[in-house]
């Protein structure tokens, strides 16, 4: 069986395993040993700065969607592994779920338990806004991860990726490459994510804005569902619709496994591809000179590790030692970086398995 098609089968198997094992995160932990990443090293920061000096023990609650996607699985794994770096963190992860009402109930249970801080990646920021505000009103600081709550009073600190910046980074990489090759009127394809989501729209808007600076535009775009199966279906449709393509941007490295399977099945390689997120799978493709994948733009699940570190400092009443200010900032948006063959080794520690 070809390598990419084998990866598709492996991804489907791992998906089932992730759902079975997700409940293990509910256990409390205060140890200092790194978590077992199931063959993958979680993205954590080791103790060593002034901020890492032991302080008052704090209870940090954590809630995230179910691990039915490689990026989400890495979010939960990174959060737990980072918490285990500190002897002064009592980590309380509730059962991950994709059910809105169940996640609301889980966060309410953390509030009732009187935790010192809550880190939450909501299934839907708007629908969980009220329970996050409930926590804040109860004096429990909330670190809002990735999907933002619409009410600023519902979180103490927000940390997330730059969706518009992802599109900009991908657009500049593709634009420069095609310009350097002297390609005129290139056929540029886009495999987007869920088109109704604001984050997908932001990624597409940034992509188009960057391409415009080179005089280029997207020729064909179709939304997928951030899954292997949808990526394969959408890329197959695009390949059937265009006999020639010069470049492809795929919004999500998880669905990228399916995108590559469709490319392999079609036997096409006249174009290059840029991914999105920074998975270990895409980094391996980038390092392979025979792959169509030349780059991926980051949207790192390492943000969960940072969220735990921020929640600890906030709960202990400390600021960030690298900043002059005495308190943790309210908003932190991570830059989207471009990973290529020239720097791929530098990013291996942040990769996640699709």
TrEMBL record:
UniProt keyword terms in alphabetical order: Signal
Coiled-coil annotated spans: none
GO cellular component: cell envelope
Gene3D superfamilies: 3.40.50.2300
Domain Periplasmic binding protein: 60-318
Signal peptide: 1-26
Predominant location category: other
Cellular compartment(s): Cell envelope
GO molecular function: carbohydrate binding
Family to which the UniProt record says this protein belongs: Belongs to the bacterial solute-binding protein 2 family.
Protein name: Monosaccharide ABC transporter substrate-binding protein (CUT2 family)
Organism this protein belongs to: Allonocardiopsis opalescens
């Amino acid at each position: 069986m070809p390598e990419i098609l084998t990866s598709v089968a492996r991804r489907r198997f791992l998906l089932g395993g992730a759902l079975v094992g997700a409940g293990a995160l509910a256990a409390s932990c205060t140890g200092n040993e790194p978590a077992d990443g199931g063959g993958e090293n979680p993205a954590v920061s080791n103790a060593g700065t002034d901020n890492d000096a032991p302080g008052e023990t704090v209870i940090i609650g954590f809630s995230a969607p179910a691990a039915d996607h490689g990026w989400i699985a890495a979010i939960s794994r990174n959060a737990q592994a980072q918490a285990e770096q500190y002897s002064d963190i009592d980590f309380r992860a509730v059962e991950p779920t994709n059910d809105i009402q169940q996640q609301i109930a889980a966060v309410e249970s953390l509030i009732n338990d009187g935790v010192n801080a809550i880190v939450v990646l909501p299934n839907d920021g708007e629908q969980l806004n009220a329970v996050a505000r409930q926590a804040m009103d109860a004096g429990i600081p909330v670190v809002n991860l990735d999907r933002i709550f619409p009410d600023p009073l519902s979180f103490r600190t927000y940390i997330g990726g730059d969706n518009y910046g992802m599109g900009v980074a991908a657009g500049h990489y593709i634009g420069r490459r095609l310009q350097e090759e002297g390609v005129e009127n290139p056929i540029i394809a886009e495999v987007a994510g869920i088109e109704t989501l604001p984050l997908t729209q932001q990624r597409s808007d940034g992509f188009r804005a960057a391409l415009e600076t080179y005089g280029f535009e997207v020729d064909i775009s179709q939304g997928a569902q951030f899954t292997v199966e949808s990526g394969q279906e959408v890329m197959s449709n695009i390949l059937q619709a265009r006999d020639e393509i010069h470049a492809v941007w795929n919004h999500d490295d998880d669905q990228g496994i399916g995108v590559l399977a469709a490319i392999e099945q079609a036997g096409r390689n006249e174009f290059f591809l840029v991914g999105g997120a920074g998975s270990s799978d895409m980094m391996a493709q980038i390092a392979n000179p025979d792959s169509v994948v030349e780059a991926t733009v980051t949207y790192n699940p390492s943000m969960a590790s940072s969220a735990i570190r921020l929640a600890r400092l906030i709960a202990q009443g400390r600021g960030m030692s690298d900043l002059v200010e005495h308190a943790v900032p309210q908003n932190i948006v991570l830059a989207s970086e471009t990973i290529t063959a020239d720097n791929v080794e530098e990013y291996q520690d942040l990769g996640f398995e699709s």
